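Question (not urgent): is this output format expected?
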Amino acid sequence: MKFFSCIFVLLSLFVSIVIAVTDQKLIQAATTGFARGNILHHGKNFEGGKPNGRFCDGKVPSDLFVEELGIKELLPPYLDPTLQAKDLITGVCFASAASGYDPQTNAFLPVLSIPKQLELFEEYIEKLKAIVGQVRALEILSNSLFIVITGQVDIQFNPASSLNPSYNQLLVNFASTFLPGLYKLGARKIGVFGVGPIGCLPFYRNTQGGIQRKCVDSLNHKAYSFNNKLSTEINSLINTFPDAKMVYIDFYNFILDLINNPTKYGYKIAQNGCCALAGKLDLLDYCPTACSNDYDYIFWDVSKQFDGTCFGSWRRGIIIALSAKKKTGFINGSYVRPPVESLLFDQWEQCNHMVISWILNSLDPDISQSIIYSKTAKRLWDELNQRYGQSNGARMYEV
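Got this back:
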């Protein structure tokens, strides 16, 4: 295939060669937000050995795809300010780590939502037309490969995944809107990945897998159920758009086989992550010690919601994310609740509920359920600081 374009949307990390694509020049979250791609050991096996925004120790799938196709060595992010015309012609990446099908999943993070990625893709098309002309631009688009990977972060982090029995169908409905949107803009070759066995992530195995650290069946069932619905929907879209080559790619069974038979693929360690505390817990902002034998590990690091540990890192990420959206006043009390009769009351109430929703979405379900009835974001924030701030501070001091 001569030309390649990529829309790659995934946060949750699975293996060292199939993980999230982002870039520190692409989104602020990659370097300053809750999900950071520039911690010390990220990029240790990348050119220059320095962090570059990719959630990996080296290249990521989009880079490997274009390299394997003989197009170029790396797939650059569309928002890279150093991007050249030749990069636009041979493919760019619109990925944003932590984006999901459901916009509410990552509402508190400064990430590029899927609708925003489509807007950027439209902008890209106009730039491409200016470079090669409309006819040639349409030819490039129709011969390009579009890769879509998302959904896992929705199932893993959104409380609605646990509270709403029909949530998987809701995600499929979002996908059913997004994919025709790509088609409308000229995409004709689209590969849509299912989600992997979430219950086999090291974090869940080490915290919910018991003494034997088994995969968590309930989480895997959610993932498997979503994949079935997504596959059915894609088959339906194929009938709707017969001139497009749209395929569902089974990611679940491949990753499950990789985890169950690591030596078959050249790996040795499947239960722990390389870049994590004791190989078990990711500290979000930090990778305290990366393993020296990283090529033995399937998992590079571990993603998780705040579960009562590492409060300082979680708190800092939330503050930075809220600051980016100019909403810190709702947790520090500077945005005072106006009187009910004020014209600003409804707007304040809406923003207050939005901030509450953002914070709840970043919490482990057991924690979020215990504070879900807090009426203001400040009260919720104060409660979390009172519960976990002092105890975590003491633990850090003792260490």
